[in-house]
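Exercise 3.2. Students should predict the tertiary structure of the chain below and write it as structure tokens, then compare their answer with the key that follows.

Predict this chain's 3D structure.
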Amino acid sequence: MEQPPQVARGQTLVEQHCSTCHATGRIGDSPAPEAPPFRKLSQNYRVDALEEAFAEGISVGHPAMPQFAFAPDDVSALVAYLQSIQDAPSSSE
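Answer key:
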């Protein structure tokens, strides 16, 4: 099944900017142990609530992660992709 264009654009962006440290797909471990796999972001955050952070610049409490800021169209694409890969909640949640 082919991805919608916005989701495909988001995948391209995370592969370009994030895959050095994060697992950016539906499977696999993050190359950097402290970097959460993107498919598990919804366990700690509302993914749609990350739009503002992507637009204004993400900064975290560890120096290894560079600060990023994305254009509005890219932010929408990033969020669409991240929403498309989130793990389904387990039956115990």
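Discussion points: The domain at 5-85 is CATH 1.10.760.10 (Cytochrome Bc1 Complex; Chain D, domain 2). The CA atoms of residues 9 and 77 lie 6 Å apart.
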